[in-house]
Amino acid sequence: MKKLFTLLFAFGLLANTHAQAPTFHSYDAVTILGDTISLSQYYGKKVMVVNTASYCGFTPQFEDLQQLYSAYRSQNFEVIGFPCNDFNGQDPNGDSAILQFCTGNYHVSFQMMSKVEIVTGDTAPVYKWLQRADLNGVANKQVAWNFNKFLIDEAGHWVRHFGSNTLPGDTAIVNWILTPSVVSGIAKNEQEKWMKLTSGNVVSSNLELKVSASNGNNMNIELFSATGQLIGQVFNGKTLDAQTISYPVQDLPAGIYLLKATRGSAAQTERISVVR
After folding, report:
1. pLDDT tens digits for 177-205?
2. Each residue of 124-154: pLDDT tens digit?
């Protein structure tokens, strides 16, 4: 009986340890603008995590990453870039210069994070998880160079790793993006969204969006800087039918902005990149 109790107790510990194993969503990270965010905000979304560099032979993949993000963000897909200088010192500048480089040269609008260490010095906690099977529960995959790609599913589980030579638009990656969600109740398209960016999320002159009927609710749409400063009101009122709204952004500095809309108890936020 004592041995049976010991075995049951040990099994319970193992089961509890497994249940509490960290996921991608267990970690915090600092954005390139200096804000600490919980990666749990990506629950319900497929995520590609990429370590980037500004002066590498693979740097043109920024364009491929942006194209992939623009094409599939409506399918609950996100790209997160982590700049890193570990590999032959190919990203030596600070966060501000890196952000200017990404948005100015490649019109990047996906989430860029603050520069991290991956294989030298103090490895960022999320990159320990990405590279170690004892943490992610799947595989040991050490980052060997810039623009390695990790795929994370909607529940925060480690899925797959690709090296630098695999382009972001590789068929295997696109096919994975289009697979059914591992989380029930997550829509994979924009059918339920009542505010859609008809101009896309990369704009240079006018931000164009289409809103559905407000069903008697007042609709308020505002544009904020990435640090939360109110830039201006895009729309306020009620719509009886679908309506197209235009908002000029040509006088705004290039960079990332947030478009926040509320309608009754519903809320929707879209990330916008203003380019020159």
Report:
1. 988 777 765 555 544 577 888 888 778 89
2. 999 999 999 999 988 999 999 999 999 999 8
Strands 28-30 and 36-38: what pairing? antiparallel
Q: How far apart are CA 209 and CA 212, in angstroms?
A: 10
56 counts as catalytic: yes
Same domain, 210 and 152: no
- Whether 64 is covered by a domain: the verdict is yes
Distance, in Å, from the CA atom of 232 to the CA atom of 247, rounded to the nearest integer, reads 10
On whether residue 227 sits in a domain, the answer given is: yes
Range 37-56 burial, b when 16+ CB lie within 10 A, else e:
eebeebeebbbbbbbbbbeb
Q: Look up the domain containing 167 and give its range.
A: 24-177
Task: Tell me the C-alpha distance between 213 and 241, whole Å.
Answer: 5
Closest CA to 98 of 5, 34, 164: 34
- What are the strands, taking DSSP E only, across the chain? 28-30, 36-38, 46-52, 77-83, 111-112, 149-152, 158-162, 195-197, 202-203, 206-211, 219-225, 230-237, 243-248, 255-263, 266-274
Residues 6+ apart with CB under 8 A from 204: 249, 250, 274, 275, 276
Q: Are residues 28 and 152 in the same domain?
A: yes
Distance of CA 272 to the CA centre of its chain: 13
DSSP state letter for 180? P
Q: What is the pTM of this model?
A: 0.68
- The CATH number of the domain where 61 resides is what? 3.40.30.10
**Residue (of 274, 239, 237) closest to 258 by Cα position:** 274
Catalytic residue among 30, 56, 119, 177: 56
Q: Are residues 205 and 137 in the same domain?
A: no
In a domain, 61, yes or no: yes
